[in-house]
Design goal:
single chain, 169 residues, six-stranded mixed β-sheet, alpha+beta
Length: 169
Protein backbone atom coordinates (compact mmCIF):
# COMPACT_ATOMS: atom_id res chain seq x y z
CA UNK A 1 0.00 0.00 0.00
CA UNK A 2 1.43 3.32 -1.05
CA UNK A 3 0.54 6.08 1.34
CA UNK A 4 1.22 9.68 0.65
CA UNK A 5 1.03 12.72 2.86
CA UNK A 6 0.97 15.17 -0.02
CA UNK A 7 -2.62 16.18 -0.43
CA UNK A 8 -2.07 18.08 -3.63
CA UNK A 9 -2.63 16.23 -6.89
CA UNK A 10 -1.02 17.74 -9.97
CA UNK A 11 -3.55 16.81 -12.61
CA UNK A 12 -2.25 18.43 -15.77
CA UNK A 13 0.21 15.61 -16.40
CA UNK A 14 -2.28 12.84 -15.67
CA UNK A 15 -3.40 10.65 -18.53
CA UNK A 16 -7.08 10.28 -19.34
CA UNK A 17 -8.36 7.42 -17.22
CA UNK A 18 -8.36 6.28 -13.61
CA UNK A 19 -5.70 7.03 -11.04
CA UNK A 20 -5.72 5.90 -7.42
CA UNK A 21 -4.45 7.59 -4.29
CA UNK A 22 -4.37 6.37 -0.73
CA UNK A 23 -4.15 8.48 2.37
CA UNK A 24 -3.96 7.79 6.05
CA UNK A 25 -5.14 10.76 8.07
CA UNK A 26 -4.15 10.82 11.69
CA UNK A 27 -3.63 13.17 14.58
CA UNK A 28 -1.09 15.32 12.71
CA UNK A 29 -3.54 15.94 9.88
CA UNK A 30 -6.51 16.92 12.04
CA UNK A 31 -4.39 19.03 14.39
CA UNK A 32 -4.03 21.60 11.60
CA UNK A 33 -7.69 22.49 12.03
CA UNK A 34 -8.83 24.52 14.99
CA UNK A 35 -12.35 23.09 15.06
CA UNK A 36 -11.59 19.48 14.24
CA UNK A 37 -13.84 17.05 16.07
CA UNK A 38 -11.29 14.38 15.34
CA UNK A 39 -8.08 14.36 17.33
CA UNK A 40 -7.12 10.78 18.06
CA UNK A 41 -7.67 8.17 15.42
CA UNK A 42 -6.92 6.94 11.95
CA UNK A 43 -8.91 7.61 8.84
CA UNK A 44 -8.02 5.69 5.69
CA UNK A 45 -9.04 7.22 2.40
CA UNK A 46 -9.01 5.57 -1.02
CA UNK A 47 -9.46 7.95 -3.89
CA UNK A 48 -10.13 7.00 -7.47
CA UNK A 49 -9.63 9.95 -9.73
CA UNK A 50 -11.06 9.57 -13.19
CA UNK A 51 -9.71 12.10 -15.59
CA UNK A 52 -11.79 12.92 -18.62
CA UNK A 53 -11.24 15.47 -21.37
CA UNK A 54 -13.17 18.28 -19.73
CA UNK A 55 -13.62 17.15 -16.14
CA UNK A 56 -12.42 14.86 -13.36
CA UNK A 57 -14.48 12.67 -11.07
CA UNK A 58 -13.03 11.88 -7.68
CA UNK A 59 -14.52 9.08 -5.64
CA UNK A 60 -13.52 9.12 -1.99
CA UNK A 61 -13.89 6.06 0.21
CA UNK A 62 -13.47 6.69 3.91
CA UNK A 63 -12.90 4.15 6.65
CA UNK A 64 -11.91 5.21 10.09
CA UNK A 65 -11.70 4.59 13.79
CA UNK A 66 -11.55 7.62 16.00
CA UNK A 67 -11.48 8.25 19.68
CA UNK A 68 -14.10 10.68 20.84
CA UNK A 69 -16.31 11.32 23.85
CA UNK A 70 -19.42 9.26 24.45
CA UNK A 71 -22.68 11.21 24.04
CA UNK A 72 -24.09 9.43 27.07
CA UNK A 73 -21.33 9.28 29.68
CA UNK A 74 -18.67 11.68 28.30
CA UNK A 75 -15.95 9.08 28.66
CA UNK A 76 -13.63 8.22 25.82
CA UNK A 77 -15.09 5.86 23.22
CA UNK A 78 -13.85 4.41 19.93
CA UNK A 79 -16.17 4.95 17.01
CA UNK A 80 -15.87 3.26 13.61
CA UNK A 81 -17.26 4.68 10.43
CA UNK A 82 -17.22 4.24 6.67
CA UNK A 83 -18.59 6.44 3.95
CA UNK A 84 -18.19 7.49 0.32
CA UNK A 85 -18.23 10.87 -1.37
CA UNK A 86 -17.95 12.10 -4.90
CA UNK A 87 -16.36 15.32 -6.07
CA UNK A 88 -16.72 16.56 -9.61
CA UNK A 89 -14.05 18.88 -10.90
CA UNK A 90 -14.93 20.76 -14.05
CA UNK A 91 -12.50 22.73 -16.13
CA UNK A 92 -13.91 26.18 -16.78
CA UNK A 93 -13.07 29.77 -17.52
CA UNK A 94 -12.36 30.65 -13.90
CA UNK A 95 -12.05 28.94 -10.54
CA UNK A 96 -15.17 28.73 -8.38
CA UNK A 97 -16.87 26.36 -6.00
CA UNK A 98 -20.37 25.57 -7.21
CA UNK A 99 -21.33 23.49 -4.19
CA UNK A 100 -19.98 20.72 -1.96
CA UNK A 101 -19.89 18.31 -4.86
CA UNK A 102 -18.80 20.42 -7.80
CA UNK A 103 -15.79 22.66 -8.14
CA UNK A 104 -14.71 24.49 -11.27
CA UNK A 105 -11.04 25.06 -11.98
CA UNK A 106 -9.85 27.85 -14.24
CA UNK A 107 -7.30 27.40 -17.05
CA UNK A 108 -4.39 28.48 -14.84
CA UNK A 109 -4.87 25.72 -12.27
CA UNK A 110 -2.39 22.88 -12.49
CA UNK A 111 -3.17 20.97 -9.34
CA UNK A 112 -5.92 20.42 -6.78
CA UNK A 113 -5.34 20.49 -3.05
CA UNK A 114 -7.55 17.94 -1.33
CA UNK A 115 -6.78 18.93 2.27
CA UNK A 116 -10.04 20.77 2.87
CA UNK A 117 -12.11 18.02 1.21
CA UNK A 118 -10.40 15.30 3.22
CA UNK A 119 -11.09 17.24 6.41
CA UNK A 120 -14.73 18.04 5.60
CA UNK A 121 -15.62 14.60 4.29
CA UNK A 122 -14.03 12.96 7.34
CA UNK A 123 -16.35 15.01 9.52
CA UNK A 124 -19.38 14.32 7.34
CA UNK A 125 -18.61 10.63 7.66
CA UNK A 126 -18.72 10.74 11.46
CA UNK A 127 -21.82 9.12 12.87
CA UNK A 128 -24.16 11.62 14.50
CA UNK A 129 -24.57 9.35 17.51
CA UNK A 130 -21.27 8.65 19.19
CA UNK A 131 -21.66 6.47 22.19
CA UNK A 132 -20.65 3.18 23.74
CA UNK A 133 -22.49 0.36 21.97
CA UNK A 134 -24.20 -0.67 25.14
CA UNK A 135 -25.07 1.46 28.13
CA UNK A 136 -23.31 -1.22 30.22
CA UNK A 137 -19.99 -0.08 28.72
CA UNK A 138 -20.55 3.49 29.87
CA UNK A 139 -19.20 5.01 33.04
CA UNK A 140 -21.74 3.66 35.50
CA UNK A 141 -21.25 6.50 37.98
CA UNK A 142 -22.33 8.98 35.33
CA UNK A 143 -25.21 6.77 34.22
CA UNK A 144 -26.43 6.56 37.82
CA UNK A 145 -26.46 10.35 38.09
CA UNK A 146 -28.20 10.69 34.72
CA UNK A 147 -30.82 8.16 35.79
CA UNK A 148 -31.73 10.31 38.76
CA UNK A 149 -32.31 13.09 36.23
CA UNK A 150 -34.57 10.75 34.27
CA UNK A 151 -31.98 10.43 31.55
CA UNK A 152 -30.11 7.45 30.24
CA UNK A 153 -32.99 5.12 29.59
CA UNK A 154 -32.60 3.64 26.12
CA UNK A 155 -36.38 3.47 25.76
CA UNK A 156 -37.21 7.14 25.76
CA UNK A 157 -35.08 8.06 22.78
CA UNK A 158 -38.01 9.94 21.30
CA UNK A 159 -38.11 12.37 24.20
CA UNK A 160 -35.37 14.94 24.23
CA UNK A 161 -33.61 14.16 27.51
CA UNK A 162 -33.30 17.85 28.30
CA UNK A 163 -37.09 18.20 28.15
CA UNK A 164 -37.50 15.09 30.23
CA UNK A 165 -35.20 16.58 32.82
CA UNK A 166 -37.10 19.86 32.76
CA UNK A 167 -40.41 18.12 33.34
CA UNK A 168 -39.02 16.83 36.61
CA UNK A 169 -38.46 20.34 37.95
ZN1 LIG B 1 -20.59 5.95 27.33
Amino acid sequence: MKLTSDYTIPFTGLKIGKHTYEYKLGKAFFEQFEYSEISEGDVYVDIVLEKQMNMMILNFEFEGVIETTCDRCQESVEVEFASEYKLIVKFGDFTETENDEIVVLGPNEIDINLTQYLYEYSHLALPSKRAHESIDECNQDVIAILRTMNYGSEDDDDIDPRWAALKEI
